[in-house]
């Protein structure tokens, strides 16, 4: 159970010292009920990888960032929602709002992570 390799699409500094980070990734190969755990670590790893890559020094390399929210972009028939209290990324079906589970590895998710 793991989300696919993330790609950082853009980075925007925001007023309070945080960042909005455009993130794209493939869904979990076995999305569990309740959502994929450890979304904070997933984002931190993406930030660290982008910072370490010579191509993207706009991303700060802090490993202790806190994900405040995730705003879904174009994700097809799904809407990923960040459960802050449980540090999980849940995926809802747009058609009826019920939770999507199972293999979503063929789905590309796009969104904006706000972190500080």
Number of beta strands: 7
Structural class: mainly beta
Helix content: 10-25%
Euclidean distance between termini CA atoms:
27 Å
Overall pLDDT confidence? 89
Number of helices: 1
> What profile does the largest beta sheet have?
4 strands, antiparallel
N-to-C series of helices and strands: EEEHEEEE
**Reading side by side through the largest sheet, how are the strands ordered?**
1-2-7-4
CA radius of gyration is: 14 Å
Low-confidence runs (pLDDT<50, min 5 residues)?
Answer: none
Shape: globular
Q: Tell me the domain tally.
A: 1
Beta-strand content: 35-45%
What does this structure look like?
With 116 residues, this protein is mainly β. The protein has one domain. Helix content is 12%, strand content 37%. The strands form two sheets. Strands 1-2-7-4 form a four-stranded antiparallel sheet, with helices on one face. A three-stranded antiparallel sheet has the order 3-6-5, with no helix packed on it. Strand 5 (78-83) and strand 6 (88-93) form a beta hairpin. The model has no long low-confidence stretch (mean pLDDT 89).
């Amino acid at each position: 159970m793991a989300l696919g390799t993330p790609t950082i699409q853009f980075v925007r500094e925001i007023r309070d010292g945080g960042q909005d980070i455009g993130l794209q990734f493939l869904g979990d190969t076995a999305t569990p009920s309740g959502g994929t755990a450890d979304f904070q670590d997933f984002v931190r790893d993406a930030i660290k990888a982008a910072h370490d890559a010579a191509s993207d020094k706009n991303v700060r390399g802090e490993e202790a960032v806190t994900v405040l929210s995730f705003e879904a972009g174009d994700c097809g028939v799904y809407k990923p929602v960040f459960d802050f209290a449980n540090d999980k990324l849940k995926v809802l079906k747009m058609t009826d709002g019920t939770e999507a589970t199972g293999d979503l590895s063929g789905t590309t998710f796009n969104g904006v992570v706000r972190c500080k």
